[in-house]
Amino acid sequence: VQLVESGGGSVQPGESLRLTCTFSETRYCMGWFRQAPGKTREGVATIANDGTVDYADSVMGRFTISRDNAKNTVYLQMNSLKSEDTALYYCASGSPPLNWGQGTQVTVS
């Protein structure tokens, strides 16, 4: 399974970004994870093939994960961004995650 993320960037607090991940197979649970400098990687949001979603408490109500299997794409809409959301964001497939993308940087400052 190949995963390619895009959509990261630098924004100010309160602004929004949408991350995109394209993947080569549609049968897996997909997720977004992030790793901030000096911290361990943490789960942000996951979406099963049936559309069931789950979020970390820290992003609940601000981030939305969605997928379009016809386009082999999963999205992470991030609103009301905070400085503590700054991290390298990874897309992953499988539960537990087995395949990872290279990551896309999100900086909020």
Describe the protein's architecture and organization:
With 109 residues, the protein is an all-beta fold. Helices cover 0% and strands 50% of the residues. The chain has no helices and 11 strands. The strands form 2 sheets. Strands 2, 4, 5, 6, 9, 10 and 11 form a 7-stranded mixed sheet that branches. It has a 4-stranded antiparallel sheet with strand order 1-3-8-7, with no helix packed on it. It is globular.
Give the helices and strands, then pairings:
Elements: E1 3-6, E2 9-11, E3 17-23, E4 30-35, E5 42-47, E6 53-55, E7 63-68, E8 73-78, E9 87-93, E10 99-100, E11 104-108
Parallel strand pairs: 2-11
Antiparallel strand pairs: 1-3, 3-8, 4-5, 4-9, 5-6, 7-8, 9-10, 9-11
Features:
seven-stranded mixed sheet, globular, four-stranded antiparallel sheet, mainly beta, 50% strand, 109 residues, single chain
Helices, by number, come to 0
Computed over alpha carbons, the radius of gyration is 13 Å
The biggest sheet, with number of strands, parallel, antiparallel or mixed sense and barrel status, is: 7 strands, mixed
Q: Give the overall silhouette.
A: globular
Mean pLDDT: 94
| Percent of residues in β-strands | over 45%
Classify the helix fraction into a percent range: under 10%
Q: How would you summarize what this structure contains?
A:
With 109 residues, the protein is mainly beta.
